[in-house]
Design goal:
- Helix content is about 30%, strand content about 20%.
- The protein is an alpha+beta fold.
- The protein has 9 helices and 10 strands.
């Protein structure tokens, strides 16, 4: 992980923690290479997850480390989720890492699991929001005092202006829990309106990730992310997808792309075994 505040507390005593891959300004390159080499020696493979909002220098650092080590055992996964959604995904991958899945399956499962994370935020303004489409009319309403907006980035983008007769954004059609991180916006709308509308099983609170104000374009934000809380359901979801072998690096994978070398399945394999589970985002997971 590239930020310590994206490492959520474990849900049980078995869930391992995550290693921190620090930014260039926080650690010299030689020490970073040494730390990565130690991780490879201890665990065999490394699945490094980082958000799209990471600095270009930090991203180049990750690729430089992999290049210097000349290792095909390092997966670099760039995830287009808000910070809190990334933290949820990383915890799920940590849980899967101690199951009977190969490193290749764990890495490629990241793309599948993002379809089951409903990530968004309550904002006081969308004037600087560039993560979802914002109409000129909505942009103009951002300047009206007291306006608040509910934004959902995935699985499908939604943006609504909060009002007394306005329905919350459509939520997950399966059982979830909701993680909430408060910024400088004083509002109980997420807990009092969104959570009941989505029928979540429980609401948990955590600190707002440091990258969230930049990601959402404002510090006046309440960020939220719903997720599958039962690791047995996540396990069954990943297990239900046909496993393939990467024709380039030989790693095991699910879906249509290798998590380690990013190579797509060979065309013939792709036609023979379409990645059905990667398009299940609008449906309930098995036995949910």
């Amino acid at each position: 992980m590239t930020s310590a505040d994206l490492v959520l507390p474990p849900t049980d005593q078995q869930t391992p923690t995550a290693a921190l891959l620090q930014a260039p300004e926080a650690q010299p390159l030689d020490l970073a290479i040494g730390d990565m080499n130690l991780l490879l020696e201890q665990h065999g493979h490394v699945v490094a997850v980082y958000p799209t909002g990471i600095s270009p220098a930090h991203e180049r650092r990750l690729y430089a480390i992999r290049s210097v080590l000349e290792s095909d055992r390092i997966a670099l996964l760039k995830v287009d989720l808000p910070p809190l959604g990334v933290a949820v995904l990383v915890r799920q991958l940590r849980q899967l890492s101690i199951c009977d899945f190969s490193p290749g399956v764990v890495a490629s499962a990241a793309r599948l699991l993002t379809h089951y994370i409903h990530a968004g935020a309550l904002l006081n303004s969308v004037a600087r929001l560039d993560r979802v489409p914002v109409s000129l009319r909505t942009h103009a309403r951002s300047w009206v005092p007291g306006s608040m907006f509910a934004v959902l980035t995935g699985p499908s983008p939604q943006l609504i202006r909060i009002g007394p007769d306005v329905e919350p954004p459509a939520g997950p059609p399966f059982a979830t829990q909701l993680l909430v991180a408060r910024g400088q916006l004083a509002s109980e709308w997420v807990q009092q309106t969104l959570a009941p509308a989505w029928g979540v099983q429980a609401v948990q609170e955590c600190a707002l990730p440091s990258a969230s104000p930049r990601w959402w374009g404002t510090g006046k934000v309440v960020e939220f992310a719903s997720f599958l809380p039962d690791i047995s359901v996540v396990y069954q979801l990943v297990s239900s997808v046909r496993r393939e072998r990467c024709h380039w690096c030989g790693m095991e994978l699910i879906g249509d792309r290798c998590g380690f070398c990013s190579s797509p399945l060979a065309p013939a394999e792709n036609r023979a075994h379409p990645p059905r589970a990667l398009t299940r985002g609008a449906h309930a997971p098995p036995n949910s």
